[in-house]
């Protein structure tokens, strides 16, 4: 391959560049943001100042491409937390069983992106512009830019422009249909505040706390606390619809005091704010089903949120982007058509979508159409979730699903279902 062009320089685009630099003579990344010279947030990542965590699979995939990345993050102040010893997960105030193995890596999004940029961009060509269309017809060989120029001569164009991707409109200009879409309206809002942290300080004896308020609770959502950049606590709270949090610091404190996990009240009572409350709104989850398209131009593929964007409270964004990059690498090493790439993406998207959508559809305010099999899916999911609170084997498998190492359907084994049944029969 002589030239590959990537529209978008966020994490998905950078991972695509990392894959393509081993397979193309030249890689061009087109990014409209002026990329900062350090770990500073930029306009294209409106959620960059919010809470992020690297799930187990993301840690493994990123370390594969960037062996020193986790060490670099730790050297820059990222605090790695050991389950049980440093971190706890709660559901409606009840502690989940500790599952040994994976470490919890809360991270500052601009820091992670900057380290990946530092590893990738020196070996690619960066164009500061915005892609507004495609060049070609049945075969795409370049992109049109907002400045009026083009980058052509491409053997492959990758759309990594995120959840707001205009690929459907670009395809229409070439005479192709837009990909079918599925959408779940969430109206999720979350708010984040930083607090000063002294060396070795803990809250309720912990470094990291993840508190889920289930869809059946009075105020569904997720709240998280963890240290970032060494001398700061980052605290995020979330809510849906009319219960979305605001930038009001007094309201933020009141929400922390109501949180069923004690660490939040401890932070609210003793912590010193280190900045304003920042908010972000996530209107809906969306997936674009490219695998169903009867025709698609050659020389073009999407990646990351341009394919699917999920409820962020499940932390699936970075590992999904990494899995897409792995699928891209595997596909490029074959002579198969893009249909084979889309089949690989479908497996990845289906897994993440099932994990998040099954729970999202339990939210009372969500009006999306439930599939005919949803009552059965919900019953099984509820039973497994209850069993994971008491049975160590079910808890282990549940953690593997959360960390995206296995699919939700992989839990449906006779052993796991049998233990789930016993756990639910013992339910008071």
TrEMBL record:
<keyword id="KW-0560">Oxidoreductase</keyword>
<dbReference type="GO" id="GO:0004497">
    <property type="term" value="F:monooxygenase activity"/>
</dbReference>
<keyword id="KW-0503">Monooxygenase</keyword>
<dbReference type="InterPro" id="IPR036188">
    <property type="entry name" value="FAD/NAD-bd_sf"/>
</dbReference>
<protein>
    <submittedName>
        <fullName>FAD-binding monooxygenase</fullName>
    </submittedName>
</protein>
């Amino acid at each position: 391959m002589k030239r590959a062009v990537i529209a978008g320089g966020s994490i998905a685009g950078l991972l695509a560049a990392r894959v393509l630099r081993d397979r193309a003579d030249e890689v061009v990344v087109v990014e409209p943001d002026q990329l900062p010279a350090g770990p500073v947030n930029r306009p294209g990542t409106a959620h960059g100042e919010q809470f992020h965590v690297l799930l187990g699979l993301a840690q493994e995939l990123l370390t594969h491409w960037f062996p020193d990345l986790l060490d670099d993050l730790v050297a820059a102040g990222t605090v790695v937390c050991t389950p049980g010893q440093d971190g706890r997960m709660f559901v409606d105030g009840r502690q989940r069983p500790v599952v040994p193995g994976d470490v919890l890596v809360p991270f500052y999004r601009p820091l992670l992106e900057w380290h990946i940029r530092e590893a990738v961009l020196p070996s690619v060509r960066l164009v500061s512009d915005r892609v507004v269309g495609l060049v070609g017809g049945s075969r795409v060989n370049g992109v049109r830019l907002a400045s009026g120029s083009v980058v052509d001569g491409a053997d492959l164009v990758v759309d990594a422009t995120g959840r707001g991707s205009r690929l459907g409109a670009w395809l229409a200009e070439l005479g192709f249909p837009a990909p079918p879409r599925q959408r779940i309206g969430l109206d999720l809002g979350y708010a984040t505040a930083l607090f000063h942290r002294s060396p070795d300080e803990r809250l309720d004896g912990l470094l990291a706390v993840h508190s889920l308020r289930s869809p059946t609770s009075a105020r569904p959502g997720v709240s998280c606390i963890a240290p970032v950049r060494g001398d700061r606590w980052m605290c995020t709270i979330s809510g849906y619809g009319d219960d979305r949090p605001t930038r009001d610091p007094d309201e933020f404190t009141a929400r922390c005091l109501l949180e069923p996990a004690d660490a939040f009240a401890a932070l609210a009572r003793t912590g010193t704010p280190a900045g304003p409350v920042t908010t972000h709104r996530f209107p809906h989850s969306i997936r674009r089903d490219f695998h169903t398209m009867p025709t698609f131009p050659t020389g073009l593929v999407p990646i990351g949120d341009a394919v699917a964007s999920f409820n962020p409270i499940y932390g699936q964004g970075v590992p999904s982007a990494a899995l897409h990059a792995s699928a891209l690498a595997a596909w490029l090493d074959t002579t198969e058509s893009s249909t084979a790439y889309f089949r690989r993406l479908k497996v990845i998207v289906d897994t993440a979508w099932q994990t998040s959508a099954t729970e999202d559809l339990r939210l009372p305010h969500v009006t999306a159409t439930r599939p005919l099999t949803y009552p059965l899916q919900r019953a099984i999911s509820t039973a497994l979730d209850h069993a994971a609170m008491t049975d160590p084997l079910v808890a282990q498998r549940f953690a593997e699903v959360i960390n995206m190492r296995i699919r939700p359907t992989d839990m449906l084994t006779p052993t796991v279902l049998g233990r789930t049944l016993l756990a639910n029969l013992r339910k008071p």
